[in-house]
Design goal:
It contains 11 helices and 13 strands.
Length: about 325
């Protein structure tokens, strides 16, 4: 894949997509940003450096012109929290992307999915992410699927859940998944791997797990956050009978995350989210200086006063206002 490839970033108004665009530009790649409402891209500092296309993954006809002349398509759109049946909508969107990519002669698809254990019963969110990845891999177009767990960055919904629960509750009752293992990854490291995925040499289409250097329980992640934030240790009491529905109501009450988004996120915590394969560094070299540890990533998120924080939180607010209650 050429270093001068043209990349189409779907979900450019979202958290990951909005931060990925300048990373791609810094890597010398040409970028076209896709948005249902291009006007939302006007405040972005990189707006004048990219092409902008209007399109909606649920409307196939809108993708024809947007995909024309594109080498790499980044699939960074999901319907969780904005659609009553996000599983069906994401399945159809994946098929629409495949058809448009085939017609346009796109050479590579890049998709950000979620970490999950093999053979486990997955939540709707993780099962849908997995299905989308499989649709893209089976398309016959070269596909790189990166599977990440909790992304640590100001504005990431999964991190904001940790932040608000820990900030607001010195003592809390939690479901049993607070003991489940997670392998968080910093937003900077996610962007590093996504950027590398545009031009990396791959022998075949497949999934690669990506994660930070630390594996911990969800409860330990909250306690470490509290320590970094200068809060006293939190009292966590596990109540095994708390269902995902009750837990999502609880998250919705305590955090700004709406129930339409909170429930799929909470359901996804029912299983461990750690790397099963560790060969990503053979395809995309790790960042200079190594991967960012969880404590360092939290500290960076708490002190971030730049684009990541501003754009990320605006995205979360848009998510809250758009999501069905």
């Amino acid at each position: 894949m050429s270093d001068n490839s043209r990349c189409l970033v779907t979900g450019a108004t979202g958290y990951i997509g909005g931060l990925l665009v300048p990373q791609l530009l810094d890597a010398g790649l040409r970028v076209r940003a896709l948005a249902r409402n291009p006007d939302k891209l006007a405040p972005r500092p990189w707006r004048s450096d990219v092409e902008v296309a209007r399109g909606d993954l649920t409307q196939p006809d809108s993708l024809i012109e947007a995909f024309d002349g594109v080498d790499v398509v980044y699939y960074l759109v999901h319907s969780m929290g904005t659609s009553k049946d996000f599983v069906a909508e994401e399945r159809q969107s994946a098929h629409n992307v495949v058809e448009a990519a085939k017609k346009a002669g796109v050479r590579r698809l890049v998709y950000l999915s979620g970490l999950h254990p093999e053979g486990a019963e997955l939540s709707r969110h993780l099962a849908s992410r997995t299905e989308v990845g499989e649709i893209l891999i089976d398309s016959g177009i070269e596909t790189v699927v990166l599977q990440a767990g909790i992304v640590i960055g100001s504005g990431s919904a999964s991190f904001e859940m940790i932040r608000h629960l820990t900030d607001r509750l010195p003592a809390m009752t939690t479901p049993k998944w607070v003991h489940n293992k997670i392998q968080p990854i910093s937003i900077g490291d996610v962007l590093h791997y996504l950027t590398g995925a545009a031009t990396a040499h791959v022998d075949s289409s497949r999934t690669w797990d990506v994660g930070g250097p630390d594996v911990m329980s969800y409860g330990d992640a909250m306690q470490t956050y509290a320590d970094v934030a200068g809060l006293r240790r939190r009292l966590i009491v596990v109540l095994p009978f708390l269902t995902p529905t009750i837990a999502s109501w609880w998250v919705g009450l305590v955090t700004p995350i709406p129930s339409g988004l909170a429930r799929p996120l909470v359901e996804s915590l029912e299983c461990d989210a750690v790397m099963a394969n560790h060969d990503i560094d053979g395809v995309i070299a790790p960042p200079d200086g190594g991967l960012t540890g969880y404590r360092e990533a939290v500290a960076a998120a708490l002190t971030d006063d730049g684009t990541a924080s501003t754009d990320g939180r605006r995205h979360l607010l848009r998510f809250s206002s758009a999501a069905p209650q």
